[in-house]
Amino acid sequence: MLPSATLQLDDDAAMAVLADALASAGDPRGTLMHLQLAREARPHDHRLAEAEARHLALHGKALLGALQTASSMLTLTWRRGFLEAVTLKSLAGDARWGDPVRVRQRSRLPRLLRALGALPVAQRLGQLTVAMPWSSFCLAHLTEALEAALASAPASLRLLRVEVLVADVDDGDPWRARTQIVRALRGGVRLEVDQALRPWLERAGLVARLP
């Protein structure tokens, strides 16, 4: 059972009815909705937080499909049984800025983005961030990932950010996003894309070619 396209997540009564229907059908999204609705009312209830974490761990495959195996790459923000924001960061190649690239494996990003777009829990996704370390491997596969993300994104998506990461030896986090961002619009989606991907944006007709 999929929620109606007109269902408003802020409608408490409608969300409770949907949660009941899904739970009655044995869909783990129903219990997740109930738990997250309860946590909104009691945000400091540690037992509810633990119950939500257990439910997500127990039903990760049903809720996230192929993305469950990529948990180390994912940062998920949930709201009322739906994914509100997703960050998908791949360190494939682990190439430092300017280093020669000797990577042969294919990036998992395009496949994972297509899988994300097919998930019922992602049909209210509003923000998606995709990132990889800089390398020629990164640039080739980030353009493929960008195409996959745009092709499979739900209608709710409003911000798609594609970042190229660089080594940051002065920070506890060894990678940080570069700040050279190109902004563009694709339908109702705002794109914030690393400058290194500008040639793809130009070929796609999303930004004007530089003189």
Write out key terms for the chains shown.
211 residues; alpha/beta; 2 domains; seven-stranded mixed β-sheet; 7 strands; globular
Q: Helix and strand layout, with pairings?
A:
Elements lengths: L11 H13 L3 H14 L4 H13 L1 H5 L9 E6 L2 E8 L19 H9 L9 E7 L2 H17 L6 E9 L7 E3 L3 E6 L2 E6 L3 H6 L8
Parallel strand pairs: 2-3, 3-4, 4-7
Antiparallel strand pairs: 1-2, 4-5, 6-7
Give an overview in words.
The model is unreliable at 94-104 (pLDDT under 50). Strands 1, 2, 3, 4, 5, 6 and 7 form a seven-stranded mixed sheet that branches. This protein has two domains: 8-58, no CATH class; 65-203, no CATH class. It has seven helices and seven strands. Helix 2 packs antiparallel against helix 3 and helix 5 (109-117) packs parallel to helix 6. Helices cover 36% and strands 21% of the residues. The protein is an alpha/beta fold.
